[in-house]
């Protein structure tokens, strides 16, 4: 189980994440939602330790992880994707999937290129995601959606117990959206705990066991998708942000 306690991240005077406490229960899909600028990605960055929190604690299966290095956290079973694909230039999809998963510390820079076991494992994951046909395509020739699937494949190489998905449906077309929803559901049914940041409400409502809602750095609601949908504070936060944007336009 992932526990976030009193998490804060300040950028100068901006309180991007301000005293957030929530959990992602083992075996469940938890969604972190909220209007633009609510602090979701910053919270994600602090949980995966791509960013150092200003204050607060993050616990994974009873072990405190907020002061560990990111590759140690990956080694404990927590892996994440990024909003923007981290596709490496001049490499095939297969090479990308293996390389992104390989480099965890400087010693890995001196490892042999790709072992037969890594190739087998990566091909198995590409098969699971239905993208073996693009295994030998240059990573930079992929569509936006294919890059999302490649990133998901790279994430699975580390045998995670919990995956953090940053906008897995961002910018994808409707048919790929269905595919991505199917993959997330299958991974969760296979035992993976999932924490998602996402704007696509259809995906959130269909997949999540629990939804945590952030606005202006704080958590304003938490519950089942049905509960948060009916919560006036959530409607206010989304409506308020829409009005702010309209006023600014
Ligand atoms: N590196 C940074 N330096 C300064 N301010 C930042 C930085 N990163 C984020 N912020 C600010 O922190 C706040 C929260 O941003 P964040 O990206 O976490 O929100 P979000 O909920 O993920 O938004 P979106 O849904 O638009 O991606 C915003 O006001 C943002 O401008």
Helix and strand topology:
Elements: E1 2-11, E2 14-24, E3 29-33, H1 40-47, E4 55-60, E5 63-64, H2 70-75, E6 78-80, H3 93-102, H4 116-128, H5 144-156, E7 162-166, H6 174-189, E8 193-197, H7 201-207, E9 210-215, E10 218-223, H8 225-229, H9 232-248
Parallel strand pairs: 3-8, 3-9, 6-7, 7-8
Antiparallel strand pairs: 1-2, 1-4, 4-5, 9-10
Strand order of the largest sheet: 6-7-8-3-9-10
Number of strands: 10
CATH topology: Rossmann fold
Give me the number of helical elements.
9
Task: Classify the beta-strand content into a percent band.
Answer: 15-25%
CATH class type: Alpha Beta
Residue ranges: pLDDT <50 for 5 or more in a row?
none
| Number of domains as seen in the coordinates | 1
CATH architecture: 3-Layer(aba) Sandwich
Helix content: 25-40%
The overall pLDDT average reads: 87
How do the SSEs run, as a string of H and E?
A: EEEHEEHEHHHEHEHEEHH
The coarse overall form would be globular
Distance between the termini: 42 Å
Bound ligands, each once: adenosine-5'-triphosphate
